[in-house]
Amino acid sequence: MNLQASQSSSTTAAIRSARLCRLCGAALHDTFVDLGMSPPCESFVPAAEIGNMEAYYPLHAFVCRECLLVQLEEHISPQNIFEEYAYFSSYSDSWVDHARRYCDMATDRFGLNSGSLIVELASNDGYLLQHFVRKAIPVIGIEPAINVAKVAIEKGVPTVARFFGTSLAREMVAEGKMADLIVGNNVLAQVPDLNDFVAGMKILLKHQGVITLEFPHISTLIAESQFDTIYHEHFSYFSLITIEKMARRHELKVFDVEELPTHGGSLRIYLCHSEENMRREARVDALRRSEFKAGLDMVETYTSFGEAVRMKKRNLLSYLIQLKDAGRTICGYGAPGKGNTLLNYCAIGTDFLDFTVDRNPYKHGRFTPGMHIPIRPVNEIDAHKPDYVLILPWNLKDEIVKQMRHIGDWGGKFIVPIPHVAVIDPTESQQ
Asked: pTM of the predicted model, to two decimals?
């Protein structure tokens, strides 16, 4: 081996040895899936910058042999991702309704009232806390994206535009603000310093308080090859097995869990201080047994995921090529983060999709990162009458098909890419 090759090999070995699990600190060696190089999924490109160079980063997920946390390295800081954010939760009617039902349930189950304090971490545009505000229950939202936090404040939802961790938690406790309920919906995955974040929740939580966290379930992600759920702002992917290990590290315990249909299959876990005498619901142990049955306690289950993803890519491209060869027109519906992972990994650009549409005005006139597909208002579908509409936020397919059922008037059909390529003819799906 020559000197240059030896130095290169040593550098690679050093990089690999420095790659450590963000939860338990063990060395990471095993690949979960490698989706190549991709731009940040929410970095929509303004028309004036379409010719500029974009930043690409590895989209390579690893699995820890010790705690089984699936994770990406932190190539982009949270400040760069979230300080101005393009995602507004309120643009999904079904997600707002999901939040409303949660608020009704939590109020009843935990006896929340005007003397309680609810803190939501990554509270976005107030989509959830607004329901507690209407019940006259005090709330504080914590949302680092300044542009999104501003919208929440305008709705009457008190919001702190900062990142959450032990520092902010201690400040809030010093001000007499301890939480009866801490809510974290789809935020745990977006935290690079997991231990600081969870330690902050421990500090902020009242003696008999409760934490609920929602996140995509790695079991469903694997079973349905939901590779597009992986993007740079999602640093971690969880099973109940891993969550319980995380909780024990911070003297918390899981006392309940729910399996939810949101985001293609999620968990809602309930945590309390480890010394509290909260009854452990039977469904916690039932789900744990289910995860063991699915092999989520074995690293081999995770390392076999990559080949399933490659097959999904080939199948989707084969179908789109078949349609284009037949002269069909295709557009997209939505410009979500998961859609941008799918478009970039599968190299689906304007050679396949003429444009995509989105309900969020922030994205109109911009282009998707990497593939540069133009993003237009939803009514552009009616103007162009495409033969097929590829639903990129496939987890909202029922809501979208219901909203856009009229494309069947001109013979239009929907394509759902995950968990497998499926075509929905709205004229046949009418009830």
From this structure: 0.86
